[in-house]
Amino acid sequence: MIDIQWLRDNPEDAKRALARKRVDPKFVEKFLRVDQNWRTKRAALDVLQAEQRTASKSLAETRSEELLSQAQILKNRIAEVAASLADVEKKRAVLLEQFPNPPFSDVLDGFDASGNKTLREVGEKPRFDFKPKDYLAIAQPLGMIEVKRAATVAGSRFGYLMGDGALLEFALVRLAMEVLTARGFVPVVPPVMIRPEVFMGMGRLASDQKEERYYLPKDDLYLVGSAEHTLGPLHMDEMLDEQSLPRRYVGFSTCFRREAGSYGKDTKGILRVHQFDKVEMFSFANPAESEKEHRFLLDRQEELMQKLELPYRVVEICVGDMGWTDARQFDIETWFPSEGTYRETQSCSNTTDFQARGVNVKVKRKSGEKAYAHMLNGTAFAIGRTLIAIIENNQTKDGTVKIPKVLQAYLGKKEIGK
Question: Which residues are annotated as catalytic?
């Protein structure tokens, strides 16, 4: 997915950019050596194929034993070079998978979340005259979340949303759709399965991401980890007119992740589960406008959070904590009273042309020039995490949950548990 010509033309810049994302700079030199071998063999094959075309023309005019013998030798040579080229192409492709999307030059340096920067805090944290409970202690007695029976049915890290818990999910989905369609987003219910080569093109099987995915070998399909994964290929192998951009979509899907690296308290409820629902924004943008579009998606995330009246902060993510496909990333972290801290509930990423190269989505400019589109994604609502935030920030001493005003009409009441 990375721009190979950029690697060839700017090897030192590539080393510096990729090293910032903790990729060994030596991969650049290793790739360029294999790439040069590939280019040499590709050129040799082109020459041989041109000779074959000339020989075929001569044979059509004059058939002789000598020409037939030369043609056979040429055919055998082409087969040898083509096989050698295919072998080098495989090595080249494996190396290419080792490169994440280079970050923008002004992205924060840092090795992990400690290098992130809080840009702003919005909303007042709730003040309780009692010790706040965690969401499970509130939701289970109210019949909103059931994890014990889910564990019996499906194993650990699954949950039932029930009663008002389920209705709150539908209310969040409806709110997101109403707000975002009014902003020009097209609503989509995308597939939740994806072919391996398309998933790879989206950059979502690279590095250690493959360990997070559920694979169905009999069908040769993966389960998606976000609506983003199948919204991105919506325009695969297409040429988009510059005047039609940005194209904005809002998708709702069930998502599947192994959450292999998580442990402890996070795995006991619905914070880090194997299956969850999510509303996701996705945009195909003009390369010259993608940074502006990134801020637009972030604004929409804040608009939704402010409608829910939840206290949150916007965080700029450093290179060491950034996603594999991202050139720039922001997160929204929401206040969780039971923990006395903010937790990530939404992310917003500009993947520039990285994913567009992988699934071949291009833009045709007015001038006739062609370029890869820039693709961006942003969480509208990760349902489980948003429900946790709503429950904890709106809990009462009596064990009930006040429903955010913007959702009350959807549920037909102001409080859960009364």
Answer: 257, 272, 344, 347, 385
